[in-house]
Write a structure and sequence with these properties.
Bound molecules: pyridoxal-5'-phosphate
Main location: cytoplasm
GO cellular component, one term: cytoplasm
Order of helices and strands: EEEHHHEHEHHEHEEEHEEEHHEEHEEEH
Strand content: 15-25%
Structural class: alpha/beta
Catalytic activity: N(2)-acetyl-L-ornithine + 2-oxoglutarate = N-acetyl-L-glutamate 5-semialdehyde + L-glutamate
Number of domains: 2
Cofactor: pyridoxal 5'-phosphate
Protein name: Acetylornithine aminotransferase
Number of helices: 12
Shape: globular
Length: about 400
């Protein structure tokens, strides 16, 4: 029988009524330690006082006017993003997939205006760019596209790391290459810094735009504001979302002036994107992340987490295979089915997120303390011990 809410999600039988920092509470008061942060979204934890204050203040003044008019919070957030990135301009959206859509539209428009004849976008197998028809066509995986055809043409998929295939895919139609600097849904697969730099060089040589999808790996997650900063290879266009709103729906497409040159008045738009509430929260997120020591602390806590996880993997080789990732974007590849570990985690009141390639994803709030990390490690060890059938 159909459920009131369309049954497209395989939901855990859990629901939460309250949150504080990395903790979530159910109706009966049971506390869960949240190492998923709503899939890398609650980047500053739940109910962060600065974000609550920003939202409440704006909510009392004005909710919505539309993009028919100037939105001061939007301009301010754009300026903050530009100040701390490669970008010269920003388009705001409500979600990640709208940000990658905007990125692809921008790349095609650029080449159209320049009359280069280029329109194809190269993407990588195992990537995830969202759920619109355009973005499932972009990622191409059958589990996203099956039954939804015909798909949007103009995407070419290559295996990540297969340079011969990549070079073979490039031709006079190639408009852009789109890549996640750290693949998220695909199972937390970081692209090596040299590989990103090589993509940048290739794009420059061939007149191709480079698009990063930093929707999951951006906004401080890896210990830099944007993941690609570790490599020094900047994109022409970049999609961000998830962590930028700290839980309030917000996304953005950042670009250089050159890459954005085709996007003149009337070419693109959204009713809600960048509305006053979302941008008030976005500004507060940027302010907190811009404070001295915030990103250094992400790296420090991530080092502590990583050490603990490496040790856990070594002690439970029948449960875990390896740890990989960058900063507080961590994947633990499992030997047993990853959902067994996620479910055993629930028994220990620990929330983790399943991902591709049989990983569990650990994506905690970025301001988590080492004490909470230690608690998470104890709970994950409890889950591993249950699965391996021995005492922790
Ligand atoms: C989550 C995600 C998206 C899609 O974002 P939505 O807000 O769900 O539309 C796109 N790309 C990446 C890398 C993501 O992690």
């Amino acid at each position: 029988m159909i459920t009131p809410v369309l049954p497209t999600y395989a939901r855990a039988p859990l629901s939460f009524v309250e949150g504080e920092g990395p903790w979530l509470k159910t109706e009966d008061g049971t506390r869960y330690l949240d190492m998923g942060a709503g899939i890398a979204v609650a980047s500053l934890g739940h109910a962060h006082p600065r974000l609550v204050e920003a939202l409440e203040t704006q909510a009392r003044r004005l909710w919505h006017t539309s993009n028919l008019y100037e939105i001061p919070n939007q301009t301010r957030l754009a300026e903050m993003l530009i100040e701390s990135s490669f970008a010269d301009t920003v388009f705001f959206t409500n979600s990640g997939t709208e940000a990658t859509e905007a990125a692809v539209k921008m790349a095609r428009k650029y080449h159209s205006v320049k009359e280069t004849g280029r329109f194809e976008i190269i993407t990588f197998n195992g990537s995830f760019h969202g759920r619109t028809l355009g973005m499932i066509s972009a990622a191409g995986a059958e589990k996203l596209t099956k039954g939804f055809g015909p798909l949007l043409p103009g995407f070419v998929h290559v295996d990540y790391g297969d340079d011969a295939a990549l070079h073979a895919a490039i031709n006079e139609r190639t408009a852009a290459i789109m890549v996640e600097p750290v693949q998220g849904e695909g199972g937390i697969v970081p692209i090596p810094d040299e590989a990103l730099r090589a993509l940048r060089t290739l794009c420059d040589e061939q007149g191709i735009l480079l698009i990063y999808d930093e929707i999951q790996c951006g906004m401080g997650r890896t210990g830099k504001l944007f993941a690609h900063e570790w490599s020094g290879a900047t994109p022409d266009i970049m999609a961000v979302a998830k962590g930028i709103g700290g839980g309030f729906p917000l996304g953005a497409c950042l670009a250089t002036e050159e890459a954005a040159s085709g996007m003149v008045a009337g070419t693109h738009g959204t009713t809600y994107g960048g509305n006053p509430l979302a941008c008030a929260v976005g500004c507060a997120v940027m302010e907190v992340m811009g404070e001295d020591g915030f990103l250094e602390n992400v790296s420090r806590v991530a080092g502590h987490m990583r050490q603990g996880l490496d040790s856990l993997v070594a002690r439970y080789p029948d449960v875990f295979e390896l740890v990989r990732g960058s900063g507080l974007m961590i994947g633990v590849k499992c030997v047993v089915p990853n959902m067994d570990v996620v479910n055993a985690g629930y028994d220990h009141k620990l929330l983790t997120v399943p991902g591709g390639d049989n990983v569990i994803r650990i994506l905690p709030p970025l301001n988590i303390t080492t004490d909470d990390v230690d608690e998470a490690l104890r709970r994950l060890e409890g889950a591993a011990a249950d699965i391996s059938g021995r005492a922790a």
